[in-house]
Amino acid sequence: MTLDIDQWRISDGWFDVSGTWNPVSDQVRALLRATIDDKLQAEDQDPGPPIWFVHPGERHPLWNACDVRLEDGTDVSDDETDSGAVLPADLPLGVHDLIPRDGGPITKLFVTPTAQALPGKCWGWTVQLYSTRSRSSWGQGDLYDLATLAKWANTNGASVISHNPLGDTLPLSTQEPSPYFTSTRKFASLLYLNVEAIPRAREILGSRLDELSNAGRALNGSPLIDRDAIYELKLTALRQVWAVAANSAETREIIGPLGTDPELVDHATFNALAHRFEAGWDRWDRIYSHPRSRSVSSYRESHQDEVDFWIWVQGLLALQHSRAATAGAGLMNDLPVGFSQNGSDSWVDQDCLALDWRIGAPGDEFNPDGQNWGIVPYLPQKLRARAYEPWIRTLRRLMRNTSALRIDHIMGLFRLFLIPEHDEVTGGAYLYQYGTELIDIALMEAVRAGVTLAGEDLGTVESEVRYAMDERRIPGYRVGWFEDSRAADWPYASIGSISTHDLPTLTGLVNGSDAHQREAAGITVDPDDDQRMRSNLERSVLPAGAVANEMSTGDLISSAYRCLADSGSFAVFASLEDACMSDERPNMPGTVDEHPNWRIALPSTIEDLNSTAAPMITEAMTDRAADPAIWNVVESTESGSMDSRH
Fold it and tell me: How far apart (Å, rounded) are the C-alpha atoms in residues 482 and 533?
């Protein structure tokens, strides 16, 4: 059986983990084709410009004489040879216009690097920022806590902190807990704002700030994150500061340059409307359903103060994020697969999206019933017709104030499993993307920004994806629970760890508590699966002959991280969950309300980390300690501009 992809880029089926062929039903195929046809045949549909991808140093012949207009507006002429016009070989990285002198169509010319250079061997921490409280936190970790953590990590030899996505949620009283299901990927949530650090907050709020901060710190006493309460407290404080300081010089200094940022203005307008209707855009009055409508423009003009408020909030977040990025260890941001169907990103980019479909995954050994992630997909044809502008905008935003970017489920750049809205997971199909173009653009933006690019590639990975990553030196992940080879044998172009946020902690699997938590959540526990994971752990990151179940928790953590420190991977990550000897994983796939996913706080505060197993892990990593600056600049192996954006 061979895979067939039709003209709509829909596959006729897929092989599951057991090698069984699963054909796509005629009904699903017809529905998806109709969705794509409707989008492509929409009124005023623009087929988009021709697109051409090249690498620096390449000399390609041209059909006609052309000029190249670079991103900065500079015009460059083609090279003349005896054989005719040739594309200049020394073009900088970027998206340029190839303009025929005879007046033909303008081609979007993408000059992308062939590969990235990786930093030297180093180590860092994986962090769920919301769970990482300090004693001064208002119920969850914030950007000031991230700065404190970065300084602590740097002091103890770590080079980088890999944190969860920080994307903004809908501005509603009920807050979405998952950092992978946000309103937008491009802008941060006010939940991560340190309110007490807002300019003039103390002066304006006075004793009211003490009341709010006491209420916020009282939330630290709960083992679970109460985002709804945190949001109410922080929004209340922000509104009260804004009421006094909206027209102050300090505030206008923050808002001024941001007010000309069209992406931010769109997002602020969305939040203003969502706050008014107390809902996502699928429940607004229809006149506001499109960001380019006259009604939206009129609303923005008549509610400028509210729009400015949300611009100001993002300005404060950007300032605090910048502070964290320069506090110590470098930061590694996280790019989710997508965003919610009724949020800011889907409102802005709705013309490129299949709004009646959801991204998910077919069944596998960990989730036999498959998964519906609830997020909406871009249509590859529409994204390409826009010359990938939405993709580029997202990348550039997430590469600000960061040293590295992790692309979650990087396989999704090549194909996405789509499910009709409200249908069962089994009724889905793979829609193939223009994967090499998407990954080339991601690498181009990373190299220009001085950011190291990595891809989470756990699960079923097609050979095309593996080849594309290897060729471009984009590291994937090696996880001890899954590997049967010694960590020392893992390839240099990889990132090593013992677990992930979706998998058990060391303590949780070995002492059996993770199995009990799965049973309590209604998940069938197969003892053989757990034993297989323990066996993988023993083979990959424990000394020869060690038996995980016979070791104390302290010895297990120390031994595992000493072996991980010897990994062949250029970077390895320790988890704060292991440092705090937590037996609870951040997320349990296959559950929603059955388990407190993304709501579990670490049992120790940042101030108490040196009293946990963190010093033991730090000692284990001593030989890998490197200058944290290696994560702040990544040198390109290509000629071309190094346009820093962070």
Answer: 7
